[in-house]
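Posted in: Protein Modeling Q&A

I'm a second-year student putting together a small comparison for a lab meeting, and my supervisor asked me to include a predicted structure for Acyl-CoA dehydrogenase. I've never done this before, so apologies if this is the wrong subforum. The sequence is pasted below exactly as I got it from our records. If anyone can share the structure token output, I'd also love a short note on what stands out.
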Amino acid sequence: MKFTAEHEALRKTVRDFVEKEINPHCDEWEEAGTFPIHELFKKLGGLGLLGVQKPEEYGGMGLDYSYNLVVAEELGMAHCGGVPLAIGVQTDMCTPAMARFGSDELKRDFLAPAIAGDMVGCIGVSEVGAGSDVAGMKTTARKDGDDYIINGSKMWITNSPQADFICLLANTSDDKPHKNKSLIVVPMNSPGISFSPHLNKLGMRSSETAQIFFDDVRVPQRNRIGAEGTGFMMQMLQFQEERMWGAANVIKALENCINQTIDYCRERKTFGQPLIDNQVIHFRLAELQTEVEALRALTYQACELHIEGKDVTRLASMAKLKAGRLGREVTDSCLQYWGGMGYMWDNPLSRAFRDVRLVSIGGGADEIMLGIICKMMGTLPGKTRS
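Accepted answer (user: helix_wrangler)
Welcome! Here is the predicted structure, written out as tokens:
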């Protein structure tokens, strides 16, 4: 992928923002289990970073996805994973379908404020019994006059405790699982919405996550995105950008782990020599950096084809799979070289080890990615290459 001067200017803007507005506060936010999301998002919105590829008429930059990729990659330099995750939810999970298929009214009322940083959004897909199995979700939205009445619950919803709206996937008919779902924008101050206490997560500690309950929540049918019954298709399209974002966000985070480990191994001496002088260590770090470069190439290729309008389901799934597995490999290997220091809770490798574990679970588990790839290879029983 060839980056222009405009790409590099955007990269510097994001890098400066991370260094000045995020990293000085990460330890505090991780300890608190929250960060000032409205305040931070307003600053991001002021720089245009919440609408890089969104339509200009609603406040976005109207750029192609390669610019969004640059933002995701640079956010990986944050000293925690939770804040970038919250930003990614806003830009690449709860707003893409609205930007692509939503009515002018929805875009005016929800998308434009989300781009400006005046509203915080979240995405409501996963449920206790339906995480990666999107087709198996149970939340319903039944018609009542011009409204929907929503009942059910959503689990592991990042940003939800402070969100202004949720892009909710719900069953709107009794049709087949892939044809009975719709995406509906629901204001979070609607009567009948309640929350669990904040979920006590292994990693991503600075992002707020909760379970949401919907008890006869009434919302106008005009808040539906696109035609009724097309929600599953929209969500699958949205997943591709989410998965590319996740892969891109991991790249520099893993490079940072490697570089921090190099610095530590230069300073730390055992048996009279720096740790880095051990061939097993510097060879392993070279191997890991090579793997990160392979992930970068795969992610960039998926992005290029996406910009050309090609179907990147296969490559985006591969990038997501590789990012999750490599994330575990890099953080585990690097943490080992920090020894006892790496086992401390507030060590940077310890935090990265916990945070990156989500990549193999959220947005479709590794096993789902493998199933998609196998289906497209034609290796599943009864399937042919697509």
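A couple of things worth pointing out for your meeting: The chain has twelve helices and ten strands. The chain has a mean pLDDT of 96.
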